Amino acid sequence: MADITAAMVKDLREKTGAGMMDCKSALGETKGDMEAAVDWLRKKGLSKAAKKAGRVAAEGLIGLASAGGKGAVVEVNSETDFVARNEHFQSFVTKVAELALSAGGDVEKLAKMPYPGTSLDVDGQLKHLVATVGENMTLRRTVAFDATPGVVATYVHNQTAPGLGRIGVLVSLKSTGNAEALAAVGRKVAMHVASTNPLALKPEQVDPAAIEREKAIFADQARASGKPENIIAKMVEGRMRKFYEEVVLLQQSFIMDPEKTVEAFVKAAEKDVGAPISVEGFVRYALGEGIQKEETDFAAEVAAAAKG
């Protein structure tokens, strides 16, 4: 029989979240083969992480980090919003956001990066957290910007803890001007993005399918009024200009000064920054958006549990 050390048992427990004695039994049954031991535990239904993996995780936290002209945002999901108040979960999301600065927006690369202070990678540490907290969790997505020279401004709406919340925004601004003044401009634009949720930075970046859908709706509305086709074309053109003003960031009316567009606000800020400013991009993450959540009948669940 292979010599099963305490370190081996500890390593298997970190990987699976199973109990110490179960881990020792698994290693004994598999003659110390770590991967085979993981499979043994899963087959026995003793791997907590494996049990949780199929459950929908649509809560959690958005995490942001910025440093040296770079910025990153991540979404880490859990099953309940209660976990978002767990200090271990918050610490994990904070560290992952910091690691994301070097991941270039690649979530798979981020998952394989070494997790600080452990022998695990990010994915391994997440599995350990699943076993510890008792809920399914997923590292869902990430985006990173490099605005050098310039800044990547961040904003978290309804902040849960520093850099953590349910809505997170990055705005990338390139400029050789004063970094502190530029960051203040970027934060205001980021707050605007959080409020208005624009579809794109510029008109040419709007999804062509969305443009065609809007044109079709406008054209049908105009035809219903009995207008001739040449008039309809002009009406659609005018309506599309209004559409872009509603959904394109640079053309939107700035929430802090409605008399100006966002583009005009940024242009006016160049005086304080001391150099031209180019808005390079933005991203807005809202927690759980796009995830199909399970609809549950709590009363029915309680009744079922009462029946045993």
Please explain how this structure is put together.
With 308 residues, the chain is α+β, with helices and mostly antiparallel strands. It has three domains: 6-47, Ubiquitin-associated (UBA) domain (Helicase, Ruva Protein, domain 3, Orthogonal Bundle); 59-202 and 249-286, Elongation factor Ts, dimerisation domain (Tetrahydropterin Synthase, Chain A, 2-Layer Sandwich), CATH 3.30.479.20; 207-247, GTP Cyclohydrolase I, Chain A, domain 1 (Orthogonal Bundle). It has twelve helices and nine strands. The protein has a four-stranded antiparallel β-sheet, covered by helices on one side. The longest helix has 19 residues, at 229-247. The radius of gyration is 25 Å and the shape is elongated. The model has no long low-confidence stretch (mean pLDDT 89).
Write down the CATH topology of the largest domain: Tetrahydropterin Synthase, Chain A
Q: What fraction of the residues are assigned to beta strands by DSSP?
A: 15-25%
**Helix proportion:** 40-55%
Tell me what the CATH architecture of the largest domain is.
2-Layer Sandwich
Biggest sheet architecture:
4 strands, antiparallel
What count of structural domains? 3
Low-confidence stretches: none
